Amino acid sequence: MTETIRLVYADKEYELPVIVGSEGEKAIDISQLRAATGFITLDPGYANTGSCTSNITFMDGEKGILRYRGIPVEELAEHATFKETAYLLINGKLPNRQELTRFSVLLNDNSLVHEDMRAFYENFPRSSHPMGILSAMVNALRSFYPELHNLEEEINMTVTRLLSKIRTLAAMSYKISRGHKVVYPRPDLAYCANFLNMMFDSPVKPYLIDPDVVKALRVFWILHADHEQNCSTSAVRLVGSARVNLYAAISAGIAALWGPLHGGANQAVIEMLSDIAKNKNMSKVIKLAKDKKDPSRLMGFGHRVYKTYDPRAKIMKKMCDRLLTKLKISDPLLDVAKELEEKALKDDYFVEHNLYPNVDFYSGIVLRAIGIPVNMFTVLFAIGRLPGWIAQWKESMDDPMWKLSRPRQIYTGPLQTKFVPIDER
Ligand code: ACO
Fold this sequence. Notes:
By secondary structure, the chain is mostly helical.
């Protein structure tokens, strides 16, 4: 029998059904609340609101668990390729050899972007942030690759194009911003290596592909591949709910990810660590982060869902240590990060607020070691998150319960007022 919750108001009683997820999480189904009671709910930032049911990603913020389609992210980071992880998220199962080969061929066949798109890049001001450029270029893809008539074919083609071309678009933006020759994708290189080669190969200095660097990028992307209903994914679902094309929905996700409270935090963390390294002001940074009158926060700390150590941050920290040792890099920012983490984790404010390092705290140091410039950090996050956005969008399109996303509000403005002609104001 379905469990219910009783809502009592004035002399009336209402029964609200309880929804139970496969991991035992519970929700009150309020979909009939307004019709039955005239009430709506108010939940700023949606901290208590489930926007959908989903069978893609499970996370437990209290226990520090993250699983894609049931598989722990730790196992995927250890054993899977990014391509397999993307396939898993989008199709709901790991590919067999044949499916993986077919997927790889499709990604390779769709890796080039229309040559006319280059003109756009050349006309953005050189100082443009690559996230703004990426969002615009992904949206522009619709104009270059018009809709196909067969819906299934259209979705499959759009998904493949996006997964493949996003690497090319991102690497192009970097090359063009530096005034360098664009490097084309290579059919003989796998997903991560291909991207690195497009970023760093040059006619005068061929890029030597280092398996440790490829592995680091693979793990970085797997750790970012999905994170259930976060800000950018919710943006993709919300924009997608108006039935816009997938390029437009992903472009909205990229724009949301750009923010420093979300994906933009990886850039903000490096800026904060560099500032501490330069000005030796760690205590001041911690003090200001705790000061309610000051807007600054400890970047890379805290998470809406994780109230313990972010499992991705654990993997990232280990990988960061291993990579820097292997590459024989001594990055002073790693020492600053470790000291800052140690200090914050012993500080009553951070303990009481359950603030732990999140995925962005160590990821920037990994990206720096790979050679990625700071303003491209969030672009790398976006490439990693793309399979998750696509999977969530697809799930919402196939959901028979899915509706146009349209929250309500409680109006607090003036009551009906007369229009005053301009001469009488
Ligand atoms: N530094 C200092 N104080 C913090 C921090 C922080 N990084 N994060 C939260 N707090 C404090 C808040 O000031 C607030 O304190 P109060 O209750 O005494 O007023 C309390 O903790 C709760 O903060 P909220 O903003 O309500 O919590 P929310 O769940 O909305 O915040 C967020 C999550 C936005 C990620 C926040 O922790 C933050 O701003 N962190 C820094 C930015 C960051 O690293 N973002 C990346 C997140 S991971 C990702 O999106 C990929």
